[in-house]
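debug: dumping io for the single-chain case to check the tokenizer round-trip. Nothing else runs in this session.
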Amino acid sequence: MDYQHVIDGVASALPVGKVVCVGRNYAAHARELNNTIPDEPLLFIKPATAVVSLDHPIAIPSYGGSCHFELELALVFSQSLSRGCSQHQALEAIAGVGLALDLTLRDLQQQLKQSGLPWEKAKAFDGACPLSQFVTLERAGDLQQQRLQLWRNGKLCQDGHSSEMLMPVLSLISYVTQFFSLWPGDVLLTGTPAGVGSLRSGDQLQLALSELIKTGVEVL
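debug: decoded output
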């Protein structure tokens, strides 16, 4: 695996671990897919083999039908967290703040859901989690005051704000660690705002996190 977490432009020694993802953490996104708004966060995991860099073109699978983009605020950790850690512990463990695409084979996901089967083939395939470079928490500032934007071929598709999260970031980390320990190099995806859509070969994407990160990527 040639991916490395890059924080403030410097390749990190942190390993590449699992990615814990949160579904339906933005009410508008839940509504656009005709999903109910959950009483508690919906959690699922992508393996380390799903992680790739947004510095390289995105390859979408040839199987599974439509592949949707879902832009998310991502966090990478430098310390272990477990057993429902405190919000202070969560804050201290954040090594970097960045962007991720939660790539989803939507047609396949719907088929699996209708059959009562797990989603992994639709959410956790190789390359299903492109990550940007990260910035330090000191540079990022307030995690609940971040704007997430995605343009596809020059058209603004997603334009959300972390203040719209149903469960804010630090509470979310504490909740996650009730069930899954987070280790150094693990990543948390915090949910996607409304405006998701299908990718096509040749698409040009531009992604932005406030004024902190701006990056572009091509879809193969």
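debug: round-trip ok. The chain has a mean pLDDT of 96.
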